[in-house]
Amino acid sequence: MTFPDDHLSRTTRSMGVSFIREMLKATKGVKGMISLAGGLPSPESFPSGILGGLFKEVVETDGADVLQYGPTEGDDVLKRAINIHEGEADVPLDRLIITEGSTNAIYLFARSVIDPGDVVLCESPTYLGAISSWNVMRPRWVEVPTDDEGMDPAGLEAALAEHPNAKAIYVIPNFQNPSGRTWSLERRRRFMEIVERHDVHVVEDNPYGELRFEGTPIASLKSLDRRGRVIALGTFSKVFCPGLRIAWIAAENPVYEKLVILKQGADLQTSTLGQLQVNRYLEENDLDADIARIIPVYRERRDAMLAALDAEMPAGVHFTRPSGGLFLWMTLPERLNARTLLDECVRQNVAFVPGGAFYPNGGHENTLRLNYSNMPIERIQEGVRRLARAVVKEMERSETLEEVPATP
Amino acid sequence: MTFPDDHLSRTTRSMGVSFIREMLKATKGVKGMISLAGGLPSPESFPSGILGGLFKEVVETDGADVLQYGPTEGDDVLKRAINIHEGEADVPLDRLIITEGSTNAIYLFARSVIDPGDVVLCESPTYLGAISSWNVMRPRWVEVPTDDEGMDPAGLEAALAEHPNAKAIYVIPNFQNPSGRTWSLERRRRFMEIVERHDVHVVEDNPYGELRFEGTPIASLKSLDRRGRVIALGTFSKVFCPGLRIAWIAAENPVYEKLVILKQGADLQTSTLGQLQVNRYLEENDLDADIARIIPVYRERRDAMLAALDAEMPAGVHFTRPSGGLFLWMTLPERLNARTLLDECVRQNVAFVPGGAFYPNGGHENTLRLNYSNMPIERIQEGVRRLARAVVKEMERSETLEEVPATP
Description:
The structure is a homodimer of 408-residue chains.
Chain A: H1 10-13, H2 19-27, E1 34-35, H3 48-62, H4 76-86, E2 96-100, H5 101-113, E3 119-124, H6 128-135, E4 140-147, E5 150-151, H7 153-162, E6 168-171, H8 185-195, E7 201-204, H9 221-224, E8 230-235, E9 246-250, H10 255-266, H11 272-284, H12 287-312, E10 318-319, E11 327-331, H13 338-347, E12 350-351, E13 353-354, E14 367-371, H14 377-403
Parallel strand pairs in A: 1-12, 3-4, 3-6, 6-7, 7-8
Antiparallel strand pairs in A: 2-9, 4-5, 8-9, 10-11, 11-14, 13-14
Helix pairs in contact in A: 3-11, 4-11, 5-6, 5-10, 12-14, 13-14
């Protein structure tokens, strides 16, 4: 192609290939590689055994309807099943859209609301996929300080006072990606009190909420929302199968009807067949029981990772202790750089995701994300051992560097 | 929701619900309705009988892989099968992306290239779905005159001379939606000669090319393209099953890599399961033979519609005689309005799509699109009879109106 650069749109001209994506591709399928990098649910959690027969049944009993075009909003049969599964039978079907994974919902929301230069708020750090997706609209990100209890209320107040026209806040209150943190009920209440005083949309993403290893579920922001501020997302990717790409978004008007029009223009509809396959699964099986079976597997893996980290990591390294989900978050001494560490680790056949990419405004290169859901315990233990050795090596190297006087 | 209007993006603030979409929804499932409106392939064309067993097999032999996340670009196995099916085994796999239907490809292309205010060219009329999809980017549409041979070369030259920075041209050279027209080889050559002298992207959409009822296939623009101008789209929606939402786009860099990044942000990937279901079908069955079986069905329906139109329509009504695809295009006397006609027709239980919506700059309200693929012959004949009666009635009414002197 011989086109000049201005034959791309302004957004795409500056868009580069994701470092993380390239890294994941480079490490995928490498023999012996222990990947603590991805966010994949364990294939053991897929009910593969029963799905074959079930998929056959869907076509044979529902016939041509499952193969034909369907409505942009998604199939009402599946929407009803989602309401039942969520225990929220009162979400009107005409406020629910079936999306091609949560990414599709995150994107369509942003497209409906964000113009270039608009301020959007997020936890610090936040989900990398949401950053990339929203960045297509070229917003201005404001990161709100977030600790182990959730988003800091004073920080949120300050951000909204400084940016009274902020369009939206993206949050993952349960077992956040990447930090593994869960917001306390008190923080959720404070958050809702504050946002109800502002004209700001709240996008509550919840891919991991059902993967709770201990304790009791905490009320969603949506359930605390009295003024229609919260747009709620849900997905089957982490508790059923990601390969089917079935998720949903619940929104009030005017956003709801804009989402439908935008989805019509972006992909017309989510697979009819995929929707009805998931629906059949929900009808004939107990998803909650399946989730209950996978939780002990993930809990054991988290325990193994935490025990290994406690045993192996040198002083000065900190990490979160998530009570659910797929990830934990590690903070190295400030002088260390997780990208440099990754280079060394890949040579030792262990991979993770450097944390800098989870901060839309950059920095924090001394952080990293570890996944514990997708590797057996012995591999997790071995992976942490290698990681710890690399961390120690980098700490020593950085100390040596500090001792060497700079060349004049 | 109590938000002010400026809490939507500039694009969506002005976006309204599609008249056609609402009309199709309103007529769908109405008892006795003869719909010549939709663009649905006939369910008889779906190989439902064999798909159940095949879908079972995919899960049982490929296991967890078909249920897990896959690459944003799509699965190489399916890409290879598409190349074989297309007889273009030389399209490099890393220039091909599997999309969620062609709409997804049309949208992602536009997102990668079009900024608000950019000029884009199209046939006049053109596909409504492409208009809606590209309108999200708020381009300025320039319609190029198009006749039964294809896009008018002089008109194209003039448009590109007036708009030297035009970003893209969207075309459907085979059995176009909505007109049913097919470009001659001569016109395709002239088109390519002209665009090769300009830095303009060409999007060649081809959903209907394989549904040829007579004559021999004509070289695609892509096959005539020597300078990487053409971005080619293909889909299984019209020749296999639309409900699976599996299509593809072939593009050179830099567009290709921008499409991948944008798709990652918009929906991460097309269903792994859907892709591998289609792949399995292509591996174990002869899609060309299946298409050969459905063609006589569509041909008979087109013949029946043309014969009924010849017999029933009053003088002054013109229509195209497509040699393939799903649609024909009708032009009424200029004083008639197809939306008014539709109101009358819906009362008579027959529906079609008024043609004005297929012109991005409006006008042409005396045109309409008829679909012949989705109704049995007797229903087509009855539908045309009712339509003709309504046309005659409208013609008489409009004559009466013209005779009445305007009130002063």
